[in-house]
Amino acid sequence: MKTLLPLIPPLLVALFAGPAQAADSQVAADWSLSADGAYVLDQRAGLAWPRCVEGMQWTGKTCTGQPLLLDRAEATALASDRWKAEGVGWRLPRATELQRLVDKALSPPGLNPLLFPAAPGQWHWSSTANVSAPSVNPYTYGNIAQGRAGDGARQAAMINGWAVNLSTGEARGDAARASKLPVRLVRPMPVGR
Questions:
Q1: Burial, 181: exposed, middle or buried (Cβ in 10 Å; 0-12, 13-18, 19+)?
Q2: Residues 157, 173: Cα–Cα separation, whole Å
């Protein structure tokens, strides 16, 4: 077997080594697969991530099908409908949770293909809302002339939402809510894991 080892491609070696191997042992300890292999379990955050985005199906080895592209309202409704139908706390992840999925140790960075096979590496919806308005003195003459302090930020938050690029980890709060983006829902990790 030792003579064949140099001939095995590095990816194949990584598959045999396990999907959650990483240079940092803490990171490796944080990630595992569910018993059926359909979920990536984030031990530190207590979250279960489907290996496939909405619209794609887990075959036991990879994800097949086409990603479902939804606007922000449709994505939120999908999470709510799944929660009601399954009795499990499905939701849109926060931007920071999606960013945690991006493996910066990969070259180029992105989702680990061993954990999330055939994943679209593009912008995905998050539940993060842009609720921060600049700290403004509403009694300053310029602010009175312009309208109430923070109105612009609140109006922009109604029009835009937060999305995360799962190829780079970049998060932006200016994604038009009508944009059709992939959705990766998340749920609490099953009890006893």
A1: buried
A2: 8
Dist. CA 120–CA 51, nearest whole Å: 11
Residue 128 is assigned to a structural domain of this protein: yes
pTM of the predicted structure, to 2 decimals: 0.73
The SS3 of residue 143 is helix
Residue 193 resides in a domain: no
Residue type, 64: T
6: which DSSP letter? Answer: G
**106-160, pLDDT tens digit by residue?**
989 999 999 999 999 899 999 998 645 443 344 444 434 344 444 555 555 557 8
Asked if 40 and 49 touch (Cβ cutoff 8 Å), the reply is yes
